[in-house]
Amino acid sequence: MGTSTRFRERVYAAVKRIPPGKVCTYKTIAQMLGCKAYRAVGGALRANKHPMIIPCHRVVCSDGRVGGYFGRKASAKKVKLLKGEGITITKGKVLGFGGVLWR
DNA sequence: CGCTTGACACCGT
DNA sequence: AACGGTGCCAAGC
Hints:
With 103 residues, the chain is mainly alpha-helical. Helix content is 38%, strand content 8%.
């Protein structure tokens, strides 16, 4: 494992609870942790070395845009993973965002 | 200990 | 709708 911090572990714990076919936002994760560190949440996910265990592809932007993946602003891989769970992405945004939003 | 960097969010224009 | 500036906060140097 890479550098382990309490903050990151809290982020990972929250992300692991997102069920397949649903998405959550960086903002919501931060709120669950009791803070507004939206960007720090992205930073924690960027450090995630176990995407198969921590489903970070289910974390998207608050306006429905897919957001980044593995340090990149955009990723076809992230879109593919989401589509594989039944989520439709149109023009880089989650279709029916409110309906697939978890929590 | 201080400055910079983000896988973001929000507001004004 | 699309930019651009500002704010949030952990991590890295």
